[in-house]
TrEMBL record:
Its main location: periplasm. It is found in: Periplasm. It comes from Parahaliea aestuarii. This is N-acetylmuramoyl-L-alanine amidase AmiC. The keyword Hydrolase applies.
Length: 437
């Protein structure tokens, strides 16, 4: 190569690399019930500045020394307060992204450092000022009947979501989708059952911080928190379902400890602002109330495990314990259900089917119901039913005896004999005694 060529090559190289410190490789957008999240995937760390402008309302994001390689035009803005997104270059090498807003928001931005699962990211959260523009479950209040008996509130937490896909299985199966489907089935089961009021902690594809999940459960006055997950392991042979509770000391096994570490890393992947960071103090866990809460969690977990035994191979036969951040509510019994290994090809195939998701939801539902019907908190409909000598069910239009038997996990024969029935004919409005299964 001649000297001139060499100089030319160096100039080209300089032009290609030195102008920008990093690149925006992808831009992703998630809509949550109360905010819109825009994530910029960067090839390296970058400084940024957030500016809010009025008339017309705009949010401006200036990112120093980066080049936009991704496209902004494919982002789905339906249901968001963003009208349009534009970009331009500022001061030679800075990127300016302008969000033309159609509704007022409170913006917040923060950078996330690269970690084992994800690269450097810049997160822009736009919090809605007005009522949510997407459908979200109505606020849950403890429903009280004429006799002053209230419903039990079950907080159902589908793990991961949004930017955090959770464990990944064959054929692009993602934990966040599987567990949301199971959670919705579980919600439907509790919704149909008198004495229970379910609430979904995550109702769609967006991320909620681990602390945010606990906060929502407390706000909704949950009597129980159940977090739904699907496991993954480096060995594809690993399989089976398991149930976990919090440990205030060490983990009960290295596998449980490993799992808790992985689940706790969700905030790093899902993207959590400093203000959402977990502030549960070790002292809270030493609290006396925690001891009894934990005792209930362990027993209820055992009850769920017992029901899962009939539909799945159990990975562990007893409830395991580790320091799961999402289970650290001092006053709400909390369990985490690993519904199976998404990394196991056969189990992943099953977990992807609606029928298995329903079976799994039925087992979890039955396990929780078993526990509460034996140990109902005072003042609940279930406590009253227990006093009366068992559960009752009033037949609604469209019910069949086999539906009811399945819902309460009792056999049709037992149901018939408990009610002195000779056939399976039922009448709308008729009240059936549900035998204890
Ligand atoms: Zn998980």
């Amino acid at each position: 190569m001649g000297r001139a060529c060499r100089i030319f090559a160096i100039l080209c190289w300089l032009a290609a690399t030195s102008a920008w410190a990093a690149e925006v490789q992808d831009v992703r957008l998630w809509r949550a019930p109360d905010h819109t999240r825009v994530v910029f995937d960067l090839s390296g760390p970058a400084e940024h500045k957030l500016i809010t402008l009025d008339n017309p309302s705009r949010i401006v994001l200036d990112i120093s020394d980066v080049r936009l390689k991704a496209s902004l035009s494919g982002l789905k803005l339906d249901d968001t307060p963003i009208g349009k997104i534009r970009s331009g270059i500022r001061e030679g090498s800075d990127l300016r992204v302008v969000f033309d807003m159609s509704a007022g928001v409170k913006p917040r931005s923060f950078a996330l450092k690269a970690n084992a699962q994800a690269g450097d990211r810049l997160v822009l959260d736009l919090y809605d000022l007005t009522a949510a523009t997407v459908s979200q479950p109505p606020p849950v209040t403890k429903k009280v009947d004429a006799g002053g008996r209230r419903d039990l509130i079950v907080a159902i937490d589908a793990g991961h979501g949004g930017e955090d896909p959770g464990a990944l299985g064959p054929n692009r199966l993602r934990e966040k989708d599987v567990v949301l489907a199971i959670s919705k089935e579980l919600y439907a089961l509790f919704e149909r059952e008198p004495g229970f009021k379910p609430t979904l902690i995550r109702g769609g594809d967006y991320y909620v911080s681990l602390k945010g999940r606990r906060d929502l459960a407390r706000q909704r006055q949950a009597d129980l928190f159940v977090s739904i997950h699907a496991d993954a392991f480096t060995r594809p042979q690993a399989n089976g379902a398991s149930v976990y509770a919090l440990s205030t000391k060490g983990a009960t096994s290295t596998a449980a400890q490993y799992l808790a570490q992985r689940e706790n890393a969700a905030d790093l992947i899902g993207g959590v602002n400093l203000s959402d960071k977990d502030d549960v103090l070790a002292g809270v866990l030493a609290d006396l109330s925690m001891t009894s809460t934990l005792d209930t969690s362990l027993k209820m977990g055992g009850s769920v495990l017992g029901r899962m035994d009939s539909i799945a191979r159990l990975h562990k036969r007893s409830v395991e314990q580790a320091g799961f951040a999402v289970l650290k509510s001092p006053d709400i019994p909390s369990i985490l259900v690993e519904t199976g290994f998404i990394s196991n090809p056969a189990e992943a195939r099953r977990l992807a089917t609606r029928s298995y998701q329903q079976q799994m939801a039925r087992a979890i539902h039955a396990g929780i119901r078993d526990w509460f019907s034996q140990h109902p908190p005072a003042g609940t409909l279930l406590a009253w039913q227990k006093q009366q000598g068992g559960q009752q069910y009033t037949i609604a239009r469209g019910d069949t005896l086999s539906d009811i038997a399945q819902r309460f996990n009792v056999s049709i024969t037992d149901l018939k004999s408990a009610n002195g029935m000779s056939d399976t004919r039922i009448l709308v409005g008729q009240t059936l005694k549900i035998p204890t299964s």
